[in-house]
């Protein structure tokens, strides 16, 4: 927490934009919780989009989130926000975004991975292209940025426990949108790096298959960590 406060102070002193915005987090699982609470720490207003916005899970998460966090249906949350975060199961993301209404001109952060489970705890990649591309095709007038799908939710909350800087891969077709997401990443105490257009999103999504299949097996468990090479 101390590290992130210093990061926020550094952003302010260097003139980097840290303006408060309304962010809709679609999904109230671990990833939605981690990103929602972290963005709230930066001063953003969070609306959690849930199929059960008056359910105990959603309301409790909003209560635990700093600031004036609230809950709404996914479409209501998306309509009220400048930035929309997709933190839902990867194989339903296309159905979810098609139910959000028009997101023209908004930044959409896709944090999902398209995973299928053939048998208990055996995963495979579930789409022909990538979730990033699928979301961008479903929302042609929005600025889709792939991000946060290669980092665990505990590391989103406590990156200082990782033993070194954690790098977050981002991909998208709109540079200003990627720059905005990079600012959010940096303020979390993480380090963004730009992979390129949305078409390369599948590079990072495939990595989740490797990590999970090792995690739920007798093989060595590991976490996917990007670090620069000198």
Structure, described:
This protein has 230 residues and is of the alpha/beta class. The relative contact order is 0.13. It has nine helices and ten strands.
Number of strands: 10
The helicity comes to: 25-40%
Q: Beta-strand level of the residues, as a percent range?
A: 15-25%
Sequence of secondary-structure elements? HEHEHEHEHEEEHEHEHEH
What is the 3D shape? globular
Name the poorly predicted regions. 12-17
Mean pLDDT, as a whole number?
A: 90
Evaluate the radius of gyration.
17 Å
Task: For the structure shown, list the relevant keywords.
globular; 230 residues; 8-stranded mixed sheet; alpha/beta; 9 helices
Summarize this entry quickly:
The protein is an alpha/beta fold. It has nine helices and ten strands. It has helices at 2-13, 30-41, 56-64, 74-79, 93-98, 131-138, 153-157, 175-187, 201-215, and strands spanning 22-26, 45-49, 70-72, 83-86, 107-110, 115-119, 122-125, 143-146, 167-172, 191-196.
């Amino acid at each position: 927490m101390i590290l992130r406060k210093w990061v926020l102070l550094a952003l302010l002193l260097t003139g980097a934009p840290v303006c408060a915005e309304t962010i809709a987090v679609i999904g109230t699982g671990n990833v939605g919780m981690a990103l929602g609470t972290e963005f709230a720490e930066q001063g953003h207003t969070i609306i959690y989009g849930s199929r059960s916005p008056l359910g105990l899970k959603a309301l409790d998460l909003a209560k635990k989130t700093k600031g004036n966090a609230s809950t709404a249906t996914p479409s209501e949350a998306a309509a009220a926000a400048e930035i929309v975060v997709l933190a839902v199961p990867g194989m339903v993301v296309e159905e979810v975004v098609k139910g959000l209404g028009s997101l023209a001109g908004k930044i959409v952060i896709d944090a999902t991975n398209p995973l299928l489970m053939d048998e208990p705890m055996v995963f495979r990649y579930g789409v022909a292209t990538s979730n990033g591309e699928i979301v961008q095709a479903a929302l042609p007038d929005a600025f889709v940025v792939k991000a946060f799908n290669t980092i665990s939710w505990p590391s989103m909350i406590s990156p200082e426990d990782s033993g070194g800087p954690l790098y977050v891969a981002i991909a998208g077709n709109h540079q200003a949108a990627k720059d905005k997401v990079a600012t959010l990443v940096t303020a979390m105490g993480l380090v963004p790096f730009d992979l390129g257009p949305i078409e390369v999103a599948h590079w990072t999504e495939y990595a989740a298959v490797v990590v999970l299949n090792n995690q739920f097996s007798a093989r060595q468990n590991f976490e996917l960590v990007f670090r620069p090479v000198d």
